[in-house]
Design a protein that fits this description.
Strand content: under 5%
Helix content: 55-70%
Shape: flat
CATH superfamily of the domain at 42-258: Hypothetical protein af1432
Radius of gyration: 21 Å
Length: about 325
């Protein structure tokens, strides 16, 4: 018996009956055959595959809320992803769910996010004929874009969790844990970043929500995580009182941060850059990198250009726009 088989036996004996074990044939299936690893379960292998892919590394230069912020302590899409993973793993461990599956979904959930955060997503959704949703784009990344177009060949359970992390109900409890962990992470770290940026103060947060959840980031996360654990693993959700406070705090952030002119000063410029790049490459498809020209043959011009632009980091998009559209000094 190899190491992987021993882990699989341990899973069957220790995890909740609601957990998704790595030997579940419906959840373990892949698009194409992949020989089993002697040391890692299928979900552990997916986690490692995501961690080592190009799209994951580019998250370090993609916006979370503040566009290309000056300062080491503001969140990027990568640090957000790591915080989601930590929160989701804590919940899964407490509920005796599959922590490896949870971690794989969490690490992959934002691989398809556009440059410039939600402003980049919004403009792509507006100008692309097929629309744009970052959670569905994340699945395209792991299916058709990564690994020079051959994809990562992940399990169904991981891809389903990625696809459902914003809306809908995932096929596994682990996927639903990530959906809530994502909300817990971004609400609390966006508060911290907004206070650092001078957009909010601790005193301006809604009193009733803070009274229930706590007056520090650590206390709020503990309360939110605890409410999910307290509710049990049959249905992954917050207790009613905590859910109400969470929703009030989330609504407050949408009103005061996500649409705040100070936080969104450069948003129109970012949208302009994305739109101009999209227009340029739909006319000049020969300028697309090889992998996206192959996607063009299979899915069409608009799909290929959208895939290319959505994969860009903030800095790369700005540099490419500068190279294409701004005049250079004569040498």
């Amino acid at each position: 018996m190899n190491v992987r088989e021993q882990i699989e036996i341990t899973e069957a004996g220790m995890l909740s009956k609601f957990a998704c074990v790595s030997t579940n044939p419906n959840m373990d299936r892949r698009t194409s055959y992949k020989e089993k690893c002697p040391y890692r379960t299928s979900f552990q292998r997916d986690r490692d595959t995501i961690l080592h892919c190009n799209s994951f590394r580019r998250l370090k230069r993609k916006t979370q809320v503040f566009l290309s912020p000056v300062g080491d302590h503001y969140r990027t899409r990568l640090t957000h992803t790591l915080e989601v993973s930590q929160i989701a793993r804590t919940i899964s461990r407490a509920l005796k769910l599959n922590e490896d599956l949870t971690e794989a979904i969490a690490l992959g959930h934002d691989l398809g996010h556009a440059p410039f955060g939600h402003s980049g997503e919004a403009i792509l959704a507006e100008i692309c004929p097929h629309g744009f949703k970052h959670y569905l784009q994340s699945v395209r990344v792991v299916d058709y874009i990564e690994n020079n177009g051959s994809g990562l060949n992940l399990t169904y359970a991981v891809k389903n969790g990625i696809a459902c992390h914003t809306n809908g109900i995932a096929a596994t409890r682990e996927g639903n844990v990530v959906r809530l962990a994502d909300k817990i992470a971004y609400i609390n770290h966006d508060i911290e970043d907004s206070i650092r940026a001078g957009i909010l103060t601790a005193e301006s947060l809604p009193y009733n929500a803070i009274k229930v959840l706590g007056n520090t980031k650590s206390r709020r996360i503990t309360t939110l995580v605890g409410s999910i654990v307290e509710n049990g693993s049959y249905e992954i959700k917050m207790t009613p009182e905590v859910k109400l406070a969470h929703d009030e705090l989330r609504g407050f952030l949408f009103a005061n941060v996500y649409t705040n002119p100070l936080a969104k000063t450069e948003e129109s410029k970012a949208k302009y850059v994305v739109e101009k790049l999209y227009q340029y490459f739909t006319v000049n498809t020969g300028k697309l990198p090889d992998v996206y020209r192959q996607i063009l043959l299979k899915f069409g011009k608009d799909r290929a250009v959208c895939d290319y632009i959505s994969g860009m980091s903030d800095g790369y998009a700005i540099d490419l726009y500068t190279e294409i559209f701004l005049p250079k000094s004569w040498k």
